[in-house]
Write a structure and sequence with these properties.
The chain has 230 residues and is mainly alpha-helical. The chain has two domains: 89 residues, Orthogonal Bundle (Rna Polymerase Sigma Factor, Chain: A), CATH 1.10.1740.10; 90 residues, Orthogonal Bundle (Arc Repressor Mutant, subunit A). The protein has nine helices and no strands. α2 packs across α4.
């Protein structure tokens, strides 16, 4: 009979939420790294959707991780690790917003310009720089419209549309009824669409331009076919 070897240790990437947290409680650095690499984007997007500032969102996520990792006993597996971490980060972000509202209002002229919201993926080919530029301009408008949403709608919009959570996940994450998620998402989409219409509408008037040399070339060609060339 072949000797039984030692069981092969499973990598942190293959562990369940509960197993991952158990390793983190044992101060396993690979477990901490896996947790952060897995959840960084979602947590950043949620924080960014609330505070509308890149650097502050990053700071909030960092603070959220520190709080979570210092209180891992609070994770009981009733919800997913993603949801548990997201709630911590959302609470941290909302707490900062409340502090800002209580503080003295900063004069408009002295405020730092806010960075754009999380970049959406751009799928245009590198061989078509004009198309790439056009996509980036459109995405910039979408990002700006998202930033301009009222807080109560923006959080739902980021969770559902940008992060791709379903209604039940968003409901659990934000602690609101599924019907409330649907209502807020519907209103958020209306507001985003309205702002995009206002921004893009005037641009569409110049769509498919046909003037200058192109117009002259076609005119000359038609006149030539009619025997009316000058």
């Amino acid at each position: 009979m072949a000797p039984v070897g030692k069981p092969v240790a499973r990598s942190a990437d293959a562990l369940s939420d509960v197993e991952l947290v158990e390793r983190a409680r044992a101060r396993d650095a690979s477990a901490f790294r896996t947790i952060m690499k897995t959840h960084n984007q979602r947590l950043y997007r949620l924080a960014r959707g609330i505070v509308r500032n890149d650097s502050e969102a990053e700071d909030i996520v960092q603070e959220g991780y520190v709080r979570a990792f210092s209180h891992l006993d609070g994770f009981r597996g009733d919800s997913s690790l993603a949801t548990w971490l997201s709630r911590i980060v959302i609470n941290e972000a909302l707490g900062r917003m409340r502090k800002k509202r209580r503080s003295v209002e900063v004069p408009e002229s002295s405020r730092q310009p806010e960075a754009t919201i999380i970049q959406f993926p751009v799928n245009a080919s590198n061989d078509d720089p004009e198309r790439t530029m056009a996509q980036r301009q459109i995405l910039s408008l979408v990002e700006r419209a998202t930033d301009n949403l009222p807080d109560v709608y923006r959080t739902v919009f980021v969770a559902r549309v940008i992060e791709g959570l379903n209604i039940d996940e968003t409901s659990e994450l934000l602690g609101v009824k599924p019907e409330t998620v649907k209502t807020r998402l519907h209103r958020a989409r209306q507001l985003v669409r309205k702002e995009l219409d206002a921004q893009i509408g005037p641009v569409l008037l110049d769509a498919f331009p046909f003037a200058g040399r192109r117009c002259e070339r076609l005119t000359v060609a038609v006149l030539g076919r009619l025997g009316l060339s000058e």
